[in-house]
Amino acid sequence: MTSLFDSFTIGSLTLPNRLVMAPMTRARATADGIPGELTATYYAQRATAGLLVTEGVQPSLTGQSNPHTPGLHTDAQVAAWRPVTDAVHTNGGRVFAQLMHAGRVGHPDVAGHHPVAPSAIALDATLYTGPKGRQAAPVPRALTTAEVGGEIRVFADAARRAADAGFDGVELHGANGYLIQQFLSANTNRRTDAYGGSVTRRIRFAVEAAEAAADAIGADRVGLRLSPGGSVWGIAEDDVPELYAALVAALAPLGLAYLHVLTGTDEDTLVALRKAWPGAYIVNPGGQIGPREGDRAVGEHWLAQGADLISYGRAFLANPDLVERFRADLPLRTADPDTWYQGGATGYATYTSYQH
Fold this sequence. Notes:
- This protein has 356 residues and is α/β, with parallel strands linked by helices.
- The chain has one domain (8-339): Aldolase class I (TIM Barrel, Alpha-Beta Barrel).
- The protein contains twelve helices and 14 strands.
- It has helices spanning 37-45, 75-90, 108-111, 145-164, 179-184, 199-202, 204-217, 240-251, 267-276, 296-304, 314-318, 322-328; strands at residues 8-10, 13-15, 19-21, 51-57, 95-99, 116-117, 126-128, 134-136, 141-142, 169-174, 222-226, 258-262, 280-284, 309-312.
- An eight-stranded parallel β-barrel has the order 3-4-5-10-11-12-13-14, surrounded by four helices. Strands 1-2 form a two-stranded antiparallel sheet. The chain has a two-stranded parallel sheet with strand order 6-9.
- The longest helix has 20 residues, at 145-164.
- It starts with 7 loop residues before the first strand and ends in a 28-residue tail after the last helix.
- This is 1,2-oxophytodienoate reductase.
């Protein structure tokens, strides 16, 4: 029987266990997207995970969502990430950068650019913009057909910068209501060109973004995160089995490093996607943020359903030694949500390993 503590190979990487630290926004970068020394400490503390996936990193300034999130679109940002990846590797870890283009989940007061999206449909929500507090999300500007290619290229450009910064690979964020999922979902994509309308056209942006990143750094260094049926940031998908089966079929020939799926729809659909996907399959059992953090039992359940790797989010925040705590059946701490985005070391680099 497969165990969470068995090794697994992704591309040229041998992972010592099957636990993945899921990407989580931490908002500790400078105003211009520069990660600091605390970021290196934070990720290095958790390097015993089979694989670390960073918080969402904007691949372009237009793609930024929240204040104080890191980027990978300037030379200064690349230079600032190198001590982070060095620290992870020194501690024996492996780390992918998650490339997150926010699309309509952005505000001019954060990035200085008006957000773009598949269609000019505003998000019905308020967004935190920094000193001005929460403001209504603006109506995004719909990308022209010619401009869509430019937004695909930013994923490739950021993937190259990630490789230059020492990352082992990148994960494209196609989940949680951000730009890639905005193209996938009919309620946010009302286009009538080659990128909208039918399922075949709505999956095109995701496939071409993955192809571009794979061409840039190699397919075995590129993963994709998806949230079938998820409703974060106003997404409403009523064709989940058809949509994601078509997407997986189109992605399968690319030879990507992995598919990383959140549990936002029924288990049968996710198991069917597992069977259709020829490569590594990561399941995040927490799905949308709920009252219960993931535990060892739920991870073992999904391994039994065919998952290769299990990703944990909040459990890794308060338990940098989560692998050992699971292995030795040690108690887990619960992360303090008041510290998730407040900045500084508290609730970021201050959680310690279990003291016997």
